[in-house]
Amino acid sequence: MSILHILYENDAWLPPLEAALQERRVPYQLHFVDGGSFDLAGTPPEGIWLNRMSPSSHTRGHQGGVQYVAELLGWLESHGRRVINGSKAFSLELSKVKQDIALGAFDILSPRTVAVVGRDRLKAAARNMNLPFITKHNQGGKGLGVKLFRDLESFDAYVDGPDFIEDPGGITLLQQYIEPAEPHITRVELVQDQFVMAIHSSTESGFELCPAVECAEDDAFCPVGDSGKFRQATDLDPDDPLIHRYIELMAGMRIDVAGIEFVTGKDGRRYTYDINGTTNYNADVEAEAEVSGMGFIADLAYRLLALDQRLKAAK
Asked: Which residues of 94-128 are buried (b: 16+ CB within 10 A; e: fewer)?
């Protein structure tokens, strides 16, 4: 069988994936990336590639890996290498502006969003927003920069103050705040056209809603072991029309793996606002739903490796 090459930058996220791959006897090789080099005249190794580089990499000092992988994926694909969450998917994951455009193209409702480049332009842009609104980074990561503002005075003080956090690319988003009908958001986990599970994440204590448990205990933006914050969304039917639109979007944008988040507003409408490609799974919710998220990814890798092997044998 061909080999699976895994691009990653966070060791803490590897154990569940490696366990799933080992259980299925999928051969793999790890490639840690926080930067690097490749010869454009060279030929990349054979096999299937899995992109596990996260937009939050800069919070761990690995922004160079983001830039490196963004270029590397195009090179791999130019040589016919199949990449799980390849260049198009990664480009979308790194830009919430592109995500919003893609959501609109597939008739998926999203909150009104204004992109602002330049800290000095934020106050003027905020005067054209309805209150309340939230700020967020264009390149997301663990909820950094996500804040709710109900008045302009507080927003101005934040922009002028020492607590302002700059997006890695300098793009701050001002986004319509959707008051949830219930105090949670919903995250739908999908692998290609397969529904894995849906999760309700409580919003009662803030916006840091990453469901992963494989994080450092001193990471304030990742609720380690906080099983009470996440639960299976049993009220969401896998055959829901919104999920079908998500699957259509993933096919159209060449996304293999995604955790897509929406909030149901008090107006009864569902607003989608985030597409996560480097998705992680909460072990407590997996046990509740009796599924293995990384198992779905490992199964996909196994199928693609088997296909790659058959194509090579047919040549």
From this structure: bbbebbbebbeebebbbbebeebeeeeebeeebee
Q: pLDDT category, 313, cuts 50, 70, 90?
A: confident
Range 20-45 burial, b when 16+ CB lie within 10 A, else e: bbeeeebebeebebeeeeeeeeeebe
On whether the pTM is more than 0.85, the answer is yes
Q: Helix, strand or coil for residue 148?
A: strand
Number of structural domains, the chain?
Answer: 3
Q: 90, 42, 30, 96: which is closest to 66 by C-alpha?
A: 90
What DSSP string runs through 129-141? SPSSEEEEESS--
Tell me if residue 5 falls in helix, strand or coil: strand
Cα separation values, 296 from 27, 50, 182, 258, 279, Å: 16, 13, 30, 12, 12
Using a 10 angstrom Cβ sphere, with 0-12 exposed, 13-18 middle and 19 or more buried, the burial of residue 242 is middle
What is the average per-residue pLDDT within 39-45? Answer: 97
* Residue 191: its H or E element: strand 184-191
Question: What is the pLDDT at residue 225?
Answer: 39
Do 193 and 282 share a domain, yes or no?
A: yes
Same domain, 103 and 117: no
Longest dimension (CA), the chain: 67
Q: Which domain holds residue 150?
A: 113-176
Helix (H, G, I), strand (E, B) or coil at 265: strand
Same domain, 231 and 282: yes
Residue 63 is predicted with a pLDDT of: 84
pLDDT digits (tens, 9 = 90+) for 69-116: 999 999 999 999 999 999 999 999 999 999 999 999 999 999 999 999
d(CA 282, CA 251): 25
User: Residue 53 pLDDT more than 70?
Assistant: yes
